Structures are given as C-alpha cells and as structure tokens.
Amino acid sequence: MATWKTRGLRGSAFESLINSTNEYYRSKKLALVQKIPTPITPLKFDSERKLITEAYFDKDSTVDYIGVVQEIPVAFDAKECHTDTFSMQNIHEHQYRFMEEFEEQGGVAFVLIYFTERNDMYYLRFKELREYYERIERDGHAKNFKYNELEDDYFLKPRGPAIVNYLEGLSLDLSERE
Fold first, then answer.
1. CA-closest candidate to residue 45, choices 11, 5, 10, 13
2. CA-CA distance, 172 to 36, in Å (whole number)?
3. Amino acid 178: pLDDT
4. Does the pLDDT of residue 6 top 50, yes or no?
C-alpha cells in the first residue's frame, strides 16, 4: 500500500495557475476541464492546522485534469521541475498507460511542465512523451530528458488571464496531427 507523508503542497502553485486558467476558459466557453482529486484515506490529521499529515492512496490515480475542449476530449497531468533535467520517474507507469489508452480512444493527452528556475511552462505532447519512453527501453537512455531537447514552439506564453495557456499548445498539437 502506497503511503504519503506531506512535505507541503508540492506543485500546488502551478496547479492553482492551471485552475485559474481553466476557470477563464470555462467563462469564455472555450473549454470545460476539471481537476481530478487523488483518492486518499487519511491516517494522521493535524487538528490545529486542519491538515492531513499522513495518508495512503486508495488506488493509482490517472491524470490531474480531464475535460473537453471544443468537442475534443483532453486529459493531462501537471508537473513541476526545479532543474533543467526532467526525470521520467515523475510520470508513473499507470499514468503513461492511461494517457496511451486515452489517445487510442481519440482523445488528446499531454503533460504540462513548469520549469520553476526558468519560469517556463511547456506543453509535452503524448507523442513526445512516448519517444522519451521508447528511447529508454530501446537505447537504455537515461530516464530523463533535458530542457534543451524540447521544441521551442511548445513553450507556453501567458495570454491575459490564461496564464497557463495550454490551448495554444493543444492547437499546435492538433494541427500537426492532421
């Protein structure tokens, strides 16, 4: 049974920006995307601070967000990276398999990565993620990829209230699929 001891809300600032962007997209009727809660069972609770301090995961989660953008099903995960090297261990096998199956069903899966030291956000296409996984299996490559390997066109630029403007990455992703 997997357990979790909190070290603060890692990634919560990035997720807050995504949530805000999702609300903006919803208000403009551009997308309807929601955060999927991770099912946990609390073991220890700090009643003074009203905070769960230890819990176990009820089951493997899939991705952080799921929804629809202009009739296109989307599923994505949000990750923070504090260096220029992104460890593939941050994307669990069950998450990868879920995204793979989601794509097979006609949806679009991707990962949003926030490189905190550079203050850059990146739209990682599932196709690109698959290539990184395959080179590990095929070539025995290190279980990571570097910032400088990423495609410039998929770095996200804030647009007004859409701070994590992933619709821009999605649009480019879709145009390359046609």
1. 5
2. 25
3. 81
4. no
Q: What are phi and psi for residue 122, nearest 5 degrees?
A: -130, 140
Q: What residue has token string 């994505």?
A: 76
Between CA 37 and CA 69 the distance in angstroms is: 20
Cβ atoms of 77 and 36 closer than 8 Å: no
Please provide the size of the chain in residues: 178
Amino acid identity of 72?
Answer: I
Strand partners, 90: none
For 156-171, the pLDDT digits (tens) are: 999 999 999 999 999 9
Q: How far is CA 88 from the centre of its chain?
A: 13
**What are the tens digits of pLDDT across the range 81-140?**
999 999 999 999 999 999 999 999 999 999 999 999 999 999 999 999 999 999 988 888
Q: Summarize pLDDT for 15-45 with one digit per residue, the tens.
A: 999 999 999 999 999 999 999 876 666 667 7
Could you write out the DSSP letters of every residue in the chain?
--EEE-SS-TTHHHHHHHHHHHHHHHHTTS-EEEEPPPPEEEEEEETTTTEEEEEEESS----SEEEEETTEEEEEEEEEESSSEEEGGGS-HHHHHHHHHHHHTT-EEEEEEEETTTTEEEEEEHHHHHHHHHHHHHH---SEEEGGGS-GGGEE--BTTBSS-HHHHHHHHHHHH-
